[in-house]
Design a protein that fits this description.
By secondary structure, this protein is of the alpha/beta class. Helices cover 30% and strands 21% of the residues. The strands form 3 sheets. Strands 1, 2, 3, 4, 5, 14, 15 and 16 form an 8-stranded mixed beta sheet that branches.
Length: 478
């Protein structure tokens, strides 16, 4: 007697598999997404808890639905076989200009209210102040760097406007390829500051002392404006109305929302000054730069002020004079700066990293390696790029770790995330799946691939129980 499936049964199986393949390709052709993804059999670095060996992450409608060793997988889920793979929270770059137009910083920014013909003569003229500029309002989703950062495992960034003392408000965004509005996680997330001066004796402020005095005056005026406006609204009859001030109005809202103020400080003196200013102004603050933090780590820890560490390590200037001697303090700074993150870990300082104008993700990885070579552990580096960054930016409740209910920003790799030979295989941003496209050598022809997925194998389960739990399974190639 002949064993095995009959020709009729074999034909039915082939037709059924073909049906599922065609259905899946049709979904992608229309730009659609399955309602659920499940990453199974993977090593999961939750960051907020222990590493889960051979676990499952279920993604539904842009959020993490479940994570664990025995997570229930919905019947309609598309399954990524994570055997031999690791899953991490998406990385956060805590300060970039990704997706933003360039500003003419030499004149206080393209949006500065400085009149060059009539330079500011005092704080009442509000020089170099445009706090009403919101990074989210200026996003350009077609910025090609967004895909480069995403392919390197970055799923979020703090987009910061530049130019001026109060250049605007930073927005926390996810690095998907959707419309600008769909990328925004928090439109008003941070207030970057700069000690920019007019550079002239004919304008205000014309010195660092003047810039500091101006900042103090603006914040004092804003608090007066807040208190006076509340009094006026409570007693409108018989009290003169409060003059409207554009700068004060928007900074008032920033203070009300408890946005974090980013105070620039990179060397020891600047960092100590930043800590004093944060205390004096009584605002949520973070040191922005922090590379010489190794010298004052204990003071930063005592002040409980977090630090956004620039990964653009100090370097010798371009085309230096070979006969000019380098000051010892500069040589020491360049040598010790990459060790600052490790010193922060020892002192208990919460910190995150930002790319600070580095041109490509490979430069971020190269400079991170210098910090790790100087003593920063892989676990501490991961936390600085994920949960600690999210918490500093006020978004620890929605991102930064792999937990149910958080935004499904995930990175899937074939090894340790910061390993030199590790490759990133897949990235999820807001629950959307982005296969990573590796660079192709010039002499190697590019093979055509489906726009959003490569489906290797689709099969219907033979058992009735499995058929009830899976309409189809799409196994994505590792």
């Amino acid at each position: 007697m002949q064993s095995g499936p009959t020709p009729t049964a074999l034909l039915s199986t082939i037709l059924l598999a073909a049906y599922f393949v065609c259905s899946a390709l049709a979904i992608h052709a229309e730009g659609g997404e399955p309602p659920y993804f499940a990453i199974t059999n993977a090593r999961i670095f939750t960051v907020s808890g222990a590493v889960i060996e051979n676990g499952t992450v279920v993604v539904a409608k842009g959020l993490i639905q479940a994570v664990g060793a025995d997570s229930k997988i919905p019947a309609e889920a598309w399954i990524i076989d994570g055997k031999g793979l690791s899953v991490y929270p998406g990385l956060i770059d805590a300060g970039t200009d990704l997706g933003l137009p360039k500003s003419d910083e030499s004149h206080g920014g393209a949006h500065s209210n400085v009149d060059r013909a009539h330079p500011a003569m005092g704080p009442e003229d509000r020089p170099y102040s445009t706090p009403w500029r919101i990074a989210a309002d200026e996003l350009k989703p077609d910025d090609k760097r967004i895909a480069d950062w995403r392919n390197a495992g970055f799923t979020s960034t703090l987009a910061l406007p530049s130019g001026g003392i109060f250049p605007g408000q930073g927005s926390l965004i996810d690095l998907g390829d959707e419309r600008a509005g769909e990328m925004v996680v928090r439109s008003h997330d941070a207030v970057p500051l700069s000690f920019q001066t007019s550079g002239s004796f004919y304008g205000y402020p014309d010195s660092l002392m003047g810039a500091l005095a101006y900042m103090r005056q603006v914040l004092d005026d804003t608090r007066w404006y807040t208190a006076s406006e509340a009094t006026y609204e409570a007693h409108r009859n018989g009290i003169a109305r409060i003059p409207y001030d554009h700068t004060e109005h928007f900074l008032d809202k920033s203070l009300e929302r408890q946005e974090i103020f980013l105070i620039p400080a990179n060397n020891q003196v600047q960092i100590v000054r930043a800590l004093l200013l944060a205390k004096e102004w009584n605002v949520p603050a973070a040191v922005w730069g922090g590379q010489q933090g190794y010298a004052v780590a204990s003071a930063i820890a005592a002040a409980k002020v977090p630090v956004l560490v620039s990964l653009k390590w100090p370097a010798k200037g371009k085309d230096p004079d070979p006969e000019q001697e380098q000051p010892l303090r500069d040589l020491r700074f360049r040598d010790r700066a990459p060790g600052t993150p490790a010193e922060f870990v020892k002192a208990g300082v919460k910190f995150a990293f930002y790319s600070d104008g580095l041109e490509a993700p490979k430069d971020i990885r190269k400079n991170l390696k210098r910090a790790m070579d100087a003593g920063l552990s892989a676990d501490a580096a991961l936390r600085a790029f994920t949960l600690d960054a999210a918490q500093i930016l006020g978004a620890g409740d929605v991102m930064g770790s792999i937990e149910p209910g958080k935004i499904a920003n995930l990175v899937i790799t074939d090894g340790d995330l910061f390993g030199e030979k590790t490759k990133i295989k897949h990235v999820f941003v807001d629950g959307r799946w982005y296969p990573v496209h590796e660079e192709t050598p010039p002499d190697k022809p590019v093979e055509p691939k489906p726009a959003r997925a490569a489906i290797d194998d689709v099969a219907a389960s033979n058992s009735s129980n499995a058929a009830a739990s899976r309409a189809a399974q799409a196994r994505v190639a590792q």
